[in-house]
Write a structure and sequence with these properties.
The two termini are 28 Å apart. Strands 1, 2, 9, 10, 11, 12, 19 and 20 form an 8-stranded mixed sheet that branches. The protein has helices at residues 18-27, 66-85, 101-116, 127-133, 155-168, 211-217, 287-300, 345-363, 393-398, 414-421, 430-437, 450-461; strands at 7-14, 34-37, 54-55, 89-90, 94-98, 123-126, 143-147, 151-153, 172-174, 179-184, 189-193, 198-205, 225-235, 246-249, 259-262, 268-271, 275-276, 309-320, 326-330, 335-339, 405-407, 412-413. The protein is an alpha+beta fold. The protein contains 12 helices and 22 strands. A hairpin with a 4-residue loop joins strand 19 (326-330) and strand 20 (335-339). The model has no long low-confidence stretch (mean pLDDT 96). Bound molecules: flavin-adenine dinucleotide. Flavin-adenine dinucleotide (FAD) binds next to helix 1, strand 18 and helix 8.
Length: 462
C-alpha cells in the first residue's frame, strides 16, 4: 500500500463556520501554515447560514462582558472589511418599539446600557416619530428608541469572503474532515479525522454547536452547548416597502423577542423564535413556531401578513450554560477554545479572530507578519443595494452570459453561476450555489430553474 504523508501545519482550525473561516484568514496573514478542518462539504453550512443577518452595534449587550467588547469591535472590523471585499451591507438603522408602559419605562435604561457598551447614538423618540419611520406598524405604539447604525449584512458572502481570502493566503480548506479524536504529543497534536489524521502544533476549536464535544476530546467538561432554535419566516419582496428599518421589540426577561427586518436580498424577515432543544442537528421548523411567529407578526405589523411567505427556516444558536462567550487558551497543550458563540457570532467573527490571534501569539505561536499578502478578494454582489450583473449594460456587452437569466425570481444570470462554480471556494450542491448566487431562493423556490441549474452544477463537477 502506498502511504500518503500526513498533513502537518502550524495551526489547525476546527470548524468552517463564519468564526473558523475568520480565524483561518487571520492566521494565514502571518508566516504560519494553516488548515481549516470542516466536517461538511462546504463552508458556512452550520449556524452561519441560518441567522437573522444583522450586523449588531452591540447596544444591548451585557456591559463589561466579552461579548459586548467583541461585538462592538467586530462591528467596526466587519464594516471596514465589507467595503473592501464587497460584502453586501446596508446601514438601515433599527428602532425599538414600546407598546406598554413597562416597555416605555425600559427605554431610558436601554439607552444608558448602550452608552456603557460604547454606543452613544441611540435616541428616545415619541410615537409619531416611530410611525414616521415605520408607518405600517400596528396601532398602539407609545414611543421608541432609535439605533441608527444597526445594519443588515449578507451572512453567506461574509463566510465565503473569509474562506476565499484564507485560501488565497495559502490556508488549506479541508472538507469532510470531522475531528473525532485528538492525541496531544509533546511538540504537536494529532487530530484524527474522518479523512485521515492531521498533525498541528496549535489547535483552535471553532466547532459551534459541537464545540463542547470537541472540547471533551481534550478531557474538558467546562460547558454544555444548548442548541437554541430560532425559526424565521421570509416574506416576498413585495413586502419590502413595509420594513425599511429593523423593527425591534423591547427586550424582556424572556429574551430579545421577535423582530421584523429587511434583508439584503430585498425580502422581509419575521423572527426568530427561541426554544431550547437537545439535538444540535435539528434545524426543522415546527407548526407551533410558525403559528407563534404569525401571531407576533399580526401584533407588530398586520399588513405584513397580507404578503406572501416565500420560505421559512430555522437556525440553532450555540447557547450554553454560561452567560458569556467562552474564549480560553490551554497554553500547555497549545489549544484554544472559542465556545458559546451564540446569537452574535456573525458580527463578532473578525474580533474573535483577532482575539484568537493575540491569545495564540501570547501563548507562543510565532506570528511573523507576511509582506507578500494578496489583495482581499472582491466578492460577487448578491445584495439589492448595489447593481447586480443583469443591471449592467457594460458587463452584459462584455460578456453576454451576464444577460442570460437562469433564475428569473432572483434574476441570477448564467455568468454568475459560471463564476461561482469556478470560484476559489466552489459550491458542491444546489444549496451552496444558492448561498453564492441567490439561485433558487425566490418565489418559485427553484421550481422553474432547478433543472438547468442542476445541469450546470453537474457539468462543473465533471
Ligand atoms: C436564529 C439565529 C439568529 C441569529 N442572528 C444573528 C444576527 O442577526 N447577527 C449575528 O451577528 N449573529 C446572529 N446569530 C449568530 C450567528 O449566526 C452565530 O453566532 C455564528 O454563525 C456562529 O458561527 P460558528 O462559526 O461559531 O458556528 P457554525 O456556523 O455552526 O460553524 C461551526 C462548524 O463547525 C463544524 N464542525 C462541528 N464539529 C466539527 C468537528 N468535530 N470537526 C470538524 N468540523 C466540525 C460544523 O460542521 C460547522 O460548519 C444568529 C443565530 C441564530 C441561530
Amino acid at each position: 500500500m502506498i502511504g500518503t504523508a500526513m498533513i502537518e501545519v502550524d495551526a489547525a482550525v476546527i470548524g468552517g463556520g463564519v468564526v473558523g473561516c475568520a480565524i483561518a484568514r487571520e492566521l494565514a496573514g502571518y508566516q504560519v501554515g494553516v488548515a481549516l478542518l470542516e466536517a461538511g462539504r462546504d463552508v458556512g453550512e452550520g449556524t452561519s447560514k441560518a441567522n437573522t443577518a444583522i450586523l449588531h452595534t452591540g447596544f444591548d449587550a451585557t456591559p463589561g462582558s466579552l461579548e459586548s467588547e467583541l461585538v462592538a469591535r467586530g462591528y467596526s472590523l466587519l464594516s471596514g472589511y465589507s467595503a473592501l471585499a464587497g460584502i453586501p451591507v446596508e446601514r438601515t438603522g433599527a428602532v425599538l418599539v414600546a407598546r406598554t408602559g413597562a416597555d416605555l419605562g425600559a427605554l431610558p435604561g436601554l439607552r444608558e446600557r448602550a452608552v456603557k457598551n460604547g454606543y452613544d447614538r441611540c435616541e428616545l423618540v415619541g410615537a409619531d416619530a416611530v410611525y414616521a419611520m415605520a408607518p405600517a406598524l400596528a396601532p398602539g405604539v407609545l414611543g421608541g428608541l432609535t439605533v441608527p447604525d444597526e445594519s443588515i449584512i449578507c451572512p453567506w458572502t461574509t463566510t465565503l469572503a473569509f474562506a476565499t481570502e484564507a485560501k488565497q493566503r495559502g490556508a488549506r480548506l479541508l472538507f469532510g474532515h470531522r475531528v473525532t479524536a485528538v492525541r496531544v504529543e509533546p511538540e504537536a497534536t494529532v487530530l484524527v479525522t474522518a479523512a485521515g489524521p492531521i498533525r498541528a502544533r496549535w489547535v483552535v476549536n471553532a466547532a459551534g454547536l459541537h464545540g463542547d464535544a470537541v472540547d471533551e476530546l481534550y478531557g474538558f467538561r467546562r460547558f454544555t452547548v444548548i442548541p437554541r432554535r430560532g425559526e424565521l419566516l421570509v416574506f416576498d419582496k413585495l413586502a419590502r416597502p413595509l420594513a425599511d428599518k429593523i423593527i425591534l421589540p423591547v427586550p424582556s426577561a424572556a429574551g430579545k423577542g421577535v423582530l421584523v427586518s429587511p434583508t439584503i436580498y430585498g425580502n422581509v424577515l419575521l423572527g426568530p423564535t427561541a426554544e431550547n432543544l437537545t439535538d444540535p442537528g435539528d434545524t426543522s421548523t415546527s407548526a407551533q413556531g410558525l403559528e407563534f411567529l404569525l401571531a407576533r407578526g399580526r401584533a407588530i405589523m398586520p399588513s405584513l401578513l397580507s404578503e406572501e411567505v416565500t420560505a421559512c427556516y430555522a437556525g440553532l444558536r450555540a447557547a450554553t450554560d454560561r452567560p458569556d462567550y467562552l474564549v480560553e487558551i490551554d497554553r500547555a497543550r497549545r489549544y484554544l477554545l472559542l465556545g458559546g458563540i451564540r446569537s452574535t457570532g456573525l458580527t463578532a467573527s473578525m474580533a474573535l479572530a483577532e482575539r484568537a490571534r493575540v491569545l495564540l501569539g501570547d501563548a507562543g505561536l510565532a506570528l511573523t507578519p507576511r509582506d507578500d499578502l494578496p489583495e482581499p478578494p472582491r466578492m460577487p454582489n448578491i445584495g439589492e443595494a448595489r447593481p447586480r450583473p443583469y443591471q449592467s449594460d457594460a458587463r452584459i456587452a462584455a460578456d453576454p452570459d451576464y444577460g442570460t437569466i437562469v433564475c428569473f425570481c432572483e434574476r441570477v444570470s448564467r455568468g454568475e453561476i459560471r463564476d461561482a462554480l469556478a470560484s476559489p471556494v466552489p459550491p458542491c450542491d444546489l444549496d451552496g450555489l444558492r448561498r453564492r448566487t441567490r439561485t433558487g431562493m425566490g418565489r418559485c423556490q427553484g421550481f422553474y430553474c432547478r433543472a438547468e441549474v442542476s445541469g450546470l452544477l453537474r457539468q462543473a463537477a465533471r
